[in-house]
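WARN  no MSA supplied for this record, continuing single-sequence
INFO  ligand: adenosine monophosphate
INFO  echoing inputs
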Amino acid sequence: MADSAHSEPIVGIDLGTTNSLVAFCDERGPRILTDETGAALLPSAVRIGPDGAMTVGRAARDHIVEFPRETVHSVKRLMGQTIEQVRGDVEYLSYEVVAGEGSAARIRIHDRLLSPQEISAAILKRLREIAERALGCVVNKAVITVPAYFDDAQRQATRDAGRFAGLDVVRIINEPTAAALAYGIGRSGEPETIAVYDLGGGTFDISILQIIPSDEGSGAEAMDSAFYQVRSTAGDTHLGGDDVDRLIVELVQREIRGQFGVSLQFPPSTQQALRRFAEATKIRLSDEDAASIEIDLGEGRRYQRRIERGEFEAMIAPWVERTINACGRALRDAKLDAKQIDRVVMVGGSTRIPLVRQRVGEFFQTRPYTAIDPDRVVALGAAVQAGILAGSHTQALLLDVIPLSLGIETMGGAVAKLIMRNSTVPCSASERFSTSADGQTSIKIHILQGERELVQDCRSLGEFHLRGIPPMPAGIPQLEVTFHVDVNGILDVTAVEKRSGKRAAVQIVATHGLTPDEVDRIERESITHARRDMAMHRIIDLRVNAALDLKWIADAMKRVGDEIPADYRRELDEQIAHLQSLVDASERDPHSVDADAFHEAKESLDRASVRLHEMAITRSLREEG
Ligand code: AMP
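INFO  complex generated
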């Protein structure tokens, strides 16, 4: 196996219809390479100047309205195709497509005839520059992804584009296979059947893959020699998030005409602005329950509209069902039942829409994989394949055990570990928690990785909020948090508040981002700091629990104050003052407090207050009765 320091870098490239990305895999796992401005996505757009000069990326895409005939977009649709094969696509393209030699599709700009391969090469050249700058070395080799349905001519055209860009295309892999590789599917050495659901801006693909393990055991070698067979594909080359934008634009136009007069015309620039408005509204509705649109039409006319998530979902439901029908077709072609699909991987920006996730989950009867950014998952998987081919960095891809413990933040900045390091995957754990303040209607779940006892010493993996909990006194809500890590190392975190039934969840890849050396260092540090950390954790827990006790006692004393005998009250007051002073001191400096003394003070007050709580209960019963 080649040493990573001496082997030539191989990058992974997602050459997309709308956007392209380049990624690289090292011992930390795969990562996207960004340009000098930090941008990851390179718009797949190329403008041809009158002198033949090519402008690639954002600069080309942003001026497409000014230069519609000189700007080539969606060139992927033309790759390796004849003019007849692209008749259906040409109406969506703003530039001229003509028949070249052998009726191959060619692009005519400024009387120049260009092949789709040349345009794609310009995009690949730019990606190569981005990679060379980010890696600080020459890049000559790449793995490039193509749709599973690409035929030989389309694959060959992609290879040629690579060659024109000076790249040795060491392998062409299918986009759904790349998505599976990014999630580490195929590593377990078990046969699996997966569906890859790819819903972008303008295209929809569903692919059913059969992963046939090699006899190499598990790990990176298994991934390389496993066979990712495409059982079937289905989809629609003109179905995507753009349709949703259009639905919103139509709604807004209809209502504006209804409110302000039927004759109102929308010039192209307004149409463009409306389209952007619509997309922003759609994106907001992926995270929020409602979104507002406000458009100033001039002359004192103002269009205002609030769209609720429910209304939006009713509007897009038929569109989502078209994708679900295609899933059904793909299953029939593969002669499989939805139940036989082990996992579903989500790809493409439009899979962020909650209704899409929900329907796909219902159809395949499994929670789809969404942990990796759906815009980046294909490029990351291409980089995983590149890393395997380079023979380096395979350790990062090995995962039979959880390398570092997983837990959540609890009150006071401590960490409750749910899954311990070295647990074998798959594994699950759950734990009950409650709130620390009265009337809390939202609880933050902060997921952490590491061996130390305090949040500040662990690595944050993500967070989410459980909202909509009815207000209750502190300590009353019953929050159950469940961690589940599956065979591919994908962590599902679910939080349920038992009394209200409110639920929220998040999915995370718990394994990328650390080198084996870093894992070792983290483990060593945890041993060095173990005693001090444990003591700190204990003090924090004591402080949180003592503060809750003090609050309950204060409440009870308020209720039954007039009944408390003087000597009992004196005893309580003394103990309360003592415990309060320890709580205060531990807040100022946790190390100044002796944990055993703190524990004893808390226990002692707990014992002393039993009688008080009894009095409070008796009083309540009397009042109720
Ligand atoms: P892709 O072709 O994979 O880059 O996907 C682009 C599509 O995803 C566009 O239609 C975007 O409007 C859409 N998209 C991106 N982010 C979101 C989001 N958060 N919610 C809904 N759609 C989104």
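The pocket of adenosine monophosphate is lined by residues 18-19, 200-201, 240-242, 279, 282-283, 286, 348-350, 352-353, 375 (CB under 6 Å).
INFO  checksum written, moving to next record
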